[in-house]
Amino acid sequence: MGRVYRWVFGAALxxxxxxxxxxxxxxxxxxxxSVHKFNNVYYVYATNDQDNSGEYWDSTxxxxxxxxxxxxxxxxxxxxxxxxxxxxxxxxxxWAPAAYARNGKYYFYAPVGxxxxxxxxxxxxxxxxxxxxxxxLVESPRDANAGDEPIDPAIFIDADGQAYMYFGTRxxxxxxxxxxxxxTEGQILEVVINGFPESDKKKKYGEAPYLHEHNGIYxxxxxxxxxxxxxxxxxxxxxxxxxxxxxxxxxLDISTNHHAILQDGDKSYIxxxxxAKQGGGDHKRSxxxxxxxxxPSGEIYRVx
Length: 304
Ligand code: FUB
What we know:
Elements: E1 30-38, E2 41-48, E3 61-67, E4 73-81, E5 98-102, E6 105-112, E7 116-122, E8 138-139, E9 154-157, E10 163-167, E11 173-177, E12 184-190, E13 193-194, E14 207-214, E15 217-223, E16 230-235, E17 242-249, E18 259-264, E19 267-274, E20 286-292
Parallel strand pairs: 13-17
Antiparallel strand pairs: 1-2, 2-3, 3-4, 5-6, 6-7, 7-8, 9-10, 10-11, 11-12, 14-15, 15-16, 16-17, 18-19, 19-20
Bound molecules: beta-L-arabinofuranose (FUB).
The site of beta-L-arabinofuranose has 12 residues, from β1 and β14.
Keywords: Carbohydrate metabolism, Glycosidase, Hydrolase, Polysaccharide degradation, Signal, Xylan degradation
Signal peptide: 1-21
Family: Belongs to the glycosyl hydrolase 43 family.
């Protein structure tokens, strides 16, 4: 990786992929997708919006969906409750999670409440997951530079085997993970994003960080806030700095947005949530997905 690139994107560049949104992956309200292909099966790990109060994101478990073809989805059910993290508040909220496979194991990173991220591990993508470390992996204010709200973990493993966890609200953070995926290595760093357009003060980091690599370029994407666009910046290292590039998903009629990108052979998809299902709203969200495509020089085409 580490390819040196020099992009000057045209200011007027806006190429919209006109694909229609997929059907909902579930009739249940769910949000904050973490999407993966494990053993030729697609999995979406999600926040449970069906069982929250409707007034806040206060559900206490996570839901899992799976598919063999990205079209027909099976509801695997409530596969993990926040109570697995015995060190967390008994009413801890189960927010946007991130799964990852490594070492023949499946790791599940999850914010509980707004101050702690836990990690659970399983031999199967569908669980059962257990907490192998008995404490938060990252916690505020315990850990220096964890920020006020360490939530929304996203995992990326580079070609050299180094794992990174991105997280944070309002200020994006990154920390290296050990090969065991259960420990952090070194300091928590701020992710630097340069080049936000001066003309739009709403263009800033909000939440929902996501890192992927495509053709040697590192793409750092995130929501700009509440409501938020999903935008992206690029860099030549997983640690940044990143240069703002543009919008992937425009504002939706909902207070949050949160996405994940699936790279499947030569195809890519962006999963996100919206208020698309009847009766939906800020706290009753639904997961959909769209194809994600790139220009020959690596710009991500706006999808929505
Ligand atoms: O689901 C609760 C919170 O809403 C997530 O942590 C954020 O990313 C936003 O989607």
